[in-house]
């Protein structure tokens, strides 16, 4: 019988996020108005109602930022499906955004800043 790796995966991502999130909060690594980089996306927990922040690789074109995941159980993605209001951290500050989500082999959320 194979071991359950979901707990190990969650712990690994949680640890990585704790290291990466403070760096991205300074604006380092954020995409330019056109390009790729990393951002922090804040969602509202669909069960808890609390703010949740996650660093994600992103592609930006002006006021639109696309982020994605191949993991079908990503909580941040399910949170955006439940509530399309979000915040995205660019240049060291959070901006309000609306999300448009699409499920598929690559689950994609496009965040439009307001």
From TrEMBL:
Signal peptide: none annotated. Transmembrane segments: none annotated. Pfam families: F420H2_quin_red. One of its GO terms (molecular function) is oxidoreductase activity. It comes from the Bacteria. InterPro entries: F420H2_quin_Rdtase (IPR004378), Split_barrel_FMN-bd (IPR012349). NCBIfam families: hi_GC_TIGR00026. This is Deazaflavin-dependent oxidoreductase (Nitroreductase family). It comes from Ilumatobacter fluminis.
